[in-house]
Amino acid sequence: MRAKLKFPSLSLYYRLVLTFLLVLLPLYGLTLIMSEINSNVVQDEVTKSMTSRVQLYLDLLEEDFDRILKFQQEFVNNEDLIKLSTAANIMSDFEKSQAILRLQSRLYLIKDSSQFIENVSVSIPLLDRTISSNAKYVEPFDTEEYEGLVTQSNRYVSPFVYWRDRLYISNFYPLSASLTQQPPIFVVGIQLSKDEIRQALQKFTIDGKGGAVLIYDQEADLIFANHETDFRETEINAFLQGRADEHKPNLTLESMVVGNEPYFVVFDRSSQFGFMLMMYVQEKHILGPLRTFRIGYWLLSGVSVIIVVIFSYQIFRMIHQPLTSLVHSFRRVEDGNFGMIKPHQFKHEFRYLSDHFNSMVMRLNVLIHEVYEQRYRASLSELRHLQSQINPHFLYNSFFLLYRMAKMQDFDVITRFTKYLGEYYQFLTHSNTSSVTLQAEVNHARTYTEIQHFRFHDRITVEFAELPPTFNAVQVPRLIVQPIIENAYVHSLERKEENGLLRVSFAEEDRCIIITVEDNGEELSAGKLADMDALLHIIDPDETESAGIYNVHRRLQIEFGIKGELRFTVSSLGGLRADIVIPLTQEGKEAD
């Protein structure tokens, strides 16, 4: 009989350690293989990225300089320029001044066509003047600049001219003047801004690392993107001089050592303009992260093993069982069971947690009751505050009207007017209750329209429907109808000189009372109606002229929930229609 092999049983701690290591080791092996593959891919992609960037930036420069050349060529054929260069001696002063002004306008356009242009000038020997885009007036003829641009120009090699530490794109007419030894009749010089070119080159660098150089003439100064130190500039110049005579493809990738630091260098040459763009960046900025990743990988692997051992031990000894008990307790709290748990027998962190868990449960029970009570009081306080913000706006007008009637000794009208005015203010001041019957609210609104009738009887007609008897006893917040009618008077009807109409009607829809206030005031656009709706959701209604509208809407929502509201539409009368919605049930009322 074959004997069975027996392995010593492993404790839970060793099982945890082995489990973590068995899970992590394949992952680390796969990560190592993938990191090596990715390192090679990243290096290739970085090389492709640098070459593609140089090509892109060179294309951008060529496109900009090509546009400058086209503008310059068009300007060479300008009719005014030809006249001033060949017939200035027979032109009147007025004709010359007008032609010069037109030329200056054209020079301004050429200068504004590119950020690289610092100045555009044309030198005309026959006129004995130089016209410049940077000068408000015509300047004296600059003989040295004229001769320098003509002498050093070689359009068959490169359009660029380097003269007196300034970079130009020059052109003259006729081109045959350089071959026949005859002076050209004019020279157009476009001075390029080295600072603008340098700023453009700074954007060409890779994530702000390394630099870029524009080489337009091996004998002239180079334009560096950054202000290089003398040491680095000298070594870069020497490197460029060493490869000046080499015949290599336009786009090349090379290595350069500057101050014992290896660099990646990418060149691309413009076949159209003859200049060359070079980008360089230190190898450590490109390959440094990959090397750091490899070192970090092995460090992470060693640290991970140590963490696995320690973590497994801590889980076994301190966390697993107490944590399981706490998790069950929290789940009971999530289910709404605020029962307490038994404290741990040992005084450690989980004893602290269990004690504070029990304290938290007791505190939650207290806070739940406090929050419910606080919300109820806050809602009631907000209701009273909003209601107190409703104040009559026509008090002064009422007194002035009463004064005029007394002066006319119309005592019967005074009697009726003071009766309505007394009823109006009695409703405002008689009771401190926050709600009244709908019949009392409607009667107060009707009293307000009667008072306004004394002022506008010859301009505004009021159609006030009777409240259905079934709605008389419905309880509503005080002052919800009169502010809407007042808004119609103030913002619409008071502006009409005749035939104003205000209509108040009542209806029932979907177990809701609809009180409609509409007028025939000014026509409402979609934008104006949207502004009216926005008034119902403003943050600080005290700073608007329509605080009463906001308060009515807010108090309806507090009292009746989401079904209670104030909404605006365009009235069939042509003005604004405001619907006050009062639910006969209070489903969806805001939580207190």
Automatic annotation (TrEMBL):
- Protein name from the UniProt record: Histidine kinase
| PROSITE patterns, sorted | HAMP
Q: What is its main location?
A: membrane
TM helices/strands, residue ranges: 12-34, 295-316
Protein keywords: Cell membrane, Kinase, Membrane, Phosphoprotein, Transferase, Transmembrane, Transmembrane helix
Biological classification of the source = Bacteria, Bacillati, Bacillota, Bacilli, Bacillales
Please provide, alphabetically and separated by semicolons, the GO molecular function terms listed in this UniProt record. kinase activity
Look up and give the organism this protein is from.
Paenibacillus spongiae
Q: Residue limits of the HAMP domain? A: 317-369
SUPFAM superfamilies given in the database record: ATPase domain of HSP90 chaperone/DNA topoisomerase II/histidine kinase, HAMP domain-like
Bilayer topology annotation: Multi-pass membrane protein
- Localization: Cell membrane
Q: Which InterPro entries match?
A: Bact_2-comp_sensor_kinase, HAMP_dom, HATPase_C_sf, Sig_transdc_His_kin_internal
Please give one Pfam family short name: His_kinase
